[in-house]
Input
Amino acid sequence: MARDTTDTQPIEGIDELVGYLAAGNKPREKWRIGTEHEKFPFYVDGNAPVPYGGERGIRAILEGMQEKLGWDPIMDAGRIIGLVEPTGQGAISLEPGGQFELSGAPLESIHQTCREGNAHLAQVREIAEPLGIRFLGLGGSPKWSLADTPKMPKSRYEIMTRYMPKVGTKGLDMMYRTCTIQVNLDFESETDMRRKMQVSLKLQPLSTALFANSPFTESRPNGLQSWRGDIWRDTDNQRSGMLEFCFAPDFGFADYVEWALDVPMYFVIRDGHYHDMTRYTFRQFMAGAARNEVPDGLPTMGDWANHLSTLFPDVRLKRFLEMRGADGGPWRRICALPAFWVGLLYDEQALDAAEALTASWTYEEALAMRNAVPELGIAAPFRNATLRDVARDVLAISRMGLKNRAKKNRDGYDETSFLNTLDEVVARGTTSAEEMLSAYHTRWGGSIEPVFMEYAY
Output
């Protein structure tokens, strides 16, 4: 989320919070695709991390991008921490360790998503390369320790950094040393949201497996294919995970609200200042717990929107659904992730097929997959088969959905080609992480340094 919300409308009751989510319902003709992708900046000289300040730091990249694009700066305590397109069609933001994120515009096709990604990478290279900076497309930082990793001057991250060690063992790694690709997708009704939420929660471990791309930590193999996936197993389990209640046949907006109300908050913003609220749940905040501690200490709809953005389930519900399972990766993966989910969820025939395929899957089975995937990738077991076998069926459904959409580019090609990189994973039987590990043990000569050349933007 590039910019925190400051909507001052007071909250009168829980029904308003449910209504906030329900306001995301959109007719099919207005469904769009919003893709987010993060990458690690590094100095080409020595493959070192890039700090915020200085003539060759991240602030200089943001200032150069602002001048080039004409986007509005996002400021925090007088420091530039992001950019937003003036009409809200896209934003650039910083993750805690300097990970550079594009939050893409809501677009109609994967062709447009790919063009957007290409344009962004070309723009950022134009600014960064004269500074001796490139960007790495992996799911986890392969070289730098937490102590080596820079910290971005963003107020919400200061609160999170203090809080994370209290609620899990890997929260700081999540913040400072991981990158993801995500896609945000629409729904037309509560029933449509439920179907998409349940199918995508069950298939999120498959997404993690297909996109597994983080096998190194502090210059050595970490024994995992998706270190990022493993990190999410103990970051803050009050606000993350598969959310068993979402598997209920009558799951709806109100159920998500009831869960979110009992998750501890991170902050509220008053007069541009971030107030630490980690000792309160949103329900306690609504009951007046901070009335005497925070100026205007009663909750607003802006507080609610910000709170929803600090929840981290595998599929996050806001006024759209966020698919959150994939590691960051190279350019082709930026296009493949939205193609995978759009094919499954944006065509009725495909959604019917995906729902039928996963209808008998239990929460316990999905959780077992989620726990196995970080180490085993597409070789993770499922019933009498593996996720590689499941992937064949799921990719066939996604391809059907994309074909049915019939969104063609200027040359007459539909969106199905964007799945090719995932078809290759299944055909090989090895993930990107396994390919990197093979290179490490052979042609890289036991060094992770070549990853900065081969996986750089």
Observations:
- The mean pLDDT is 96.
- The CA atoms of residues 152 and 387 lie 38 Å apart.
